[in-house]
Design goal:
Largest sheet: 5 strands, antiparallel
Order of helices and strands: HHEEEEHHEEEEHEEEHHEEEEHHHEE
Shape: globular
Distance between the termini: 9 Å
Number of strands: 17
Number of helices: 10
Strand content: 15-25%
Helix content: 10-25%
Length: 333
């Protein structure tokens, strides 16, 4: 099997498909090859294959030898991004000249990493929340949930959550019901949720599939893109893009990436990564700390930077972190 991305990209579509079909004997039972597809986003592109496993799509991602981590600007931010970052330094009681240092302290260090090829689940799923139907609820045991559903259905709110108990999301008039499943540790959770042959991404693997080895702060560059529509802020310039009405346009950071994966694109959420040594890190968010702190969209969305590390996550126990953690299953090849 071809293990590096450059060699993989040079192959014809027919050769790639043949190689992927030959993987079948090495995969856990239940995988079937679905189709070939080409992806492109933020200058990262990949033609690869999609597999199905129990109704979920997995994408084949070739490995690579890449430089990861951040310590300085590759291009430098535009004036608006620079100004927003510098204004935020006042709230952090930092000098303007310390901007690069402040950012560097919140990023993973620059290092070389060898990434092996993998099959990666395209979408994430909650670590601690599981969805149930209305018919699954018991009128006696779940009376608080049923009462909240009735109140939400007639309100102008889109969601309601009772801490580590239940969560309701209203979408197009329908209410999705999520219950919280506690677990004592990441290891206990993994034993329950990950079948034999499956794992979750390491931090290095996540940074690779998210940014492809980019040297900029964000996957798209060193400047924040104020043309985007993002959660908690909506349309940043209120001008819309394309043919869709402004309100109907999807959130930009939740679109499929250049390796065929969909990411959370929401600083309130984090994707679970676990190192070979058992170090647990959340990537792509900070639990909404910077947004809740009133830091605005530029600082608030700093946690979606490719190499961001939440500086406070080690202060939390697994039970406290699990409620905003998401994961995707991977099969290493």
């Amino acid at each position: 099997m071809i293990k590096d991305r450059a060699t993989w990209n040079k192959q014809t579509s027919e050769c790639k498909e043949q190689l992927l079909r030959e993987l079948h004997a090495r995969l856990p039972l239940g995988f079937t090859f679905l189709k070939m597809e080409r992806f492109e986003r933020f200058g990262l592109e990949l033609e690869t294959g999609i597999f199905m496993y129990e109704g979920c799509e997995f994408v084949y991602v070739p490995g690579d030898r890449v430089t990861l981590g951040w310590q300085e600007w590759a291009i430098g931010p535009d004036e608006k991004t620079k100004g927003e970052f510098e204004r935020g330094l006042d709230d952090l009681n930092q000098e303007t000249v310390a901007l690069v240092q402040v950012l560097r302290e919140q990023m993973s260090p620059v290092r070389e990493a060898h990434i092996d090829p993998m099959l990666i689940e395209r979408q994430t799923r909650p670590v601690a929340w599981y969805e149930v139907e209305l018919a699954d609820l018991d009128p006696g045991d779940d009376s608080d949930v049923l009462e909240a559903i009735e109140q939400l259905s007639t309100s102008n709110y889109d969601s309601y959550e009772q801490h580590q108990s239940f969560r309701l999301d209203k979408e197009d008039g329908l209410i999705r019901i999520w219950l919280f499943a506690d677990s004592p540790s990441q290891q206990a959770w993994a034993r329950d949720k990950l079948p034999d042959g499956f794992d979750v991404l390491t931090e290095e693997e996540w940074e690779y599939v998210y940014g492809g080895g980019c040297r900029t702060l964000f996957p798209w560059g060193d400047s924040f893109d104020y043309r985007m529509k993002v959660r908690h802020f909506g349309e940043l310039e209120q001008n819309g893009q394309g043919e869709l009405p402004v309100n109907a346009r999807p959130f930009d950071l939740e679109k499929t990436g250049g390796m065929g994966l969909q990411f959370l694109g929401d600083p309130y959420k984090q994707e679970l990564t676990v190192s070979s040594g058992g170090i647990v890190r959340g990537k792509g968010g900070d639990g909404g700390v910077l947004i809740c702190g009133g830091m605005g969209v530029t600082w608030g969305y700093l946690p979606v930077a490719t190499y961001y590390r939440d500086p406070y996550e080690e202060e939390l126990e697994w039970e406290d972190r699990a409620e905003y953690l998401y994961y995707r299953r991977v099969v290493r090849l």
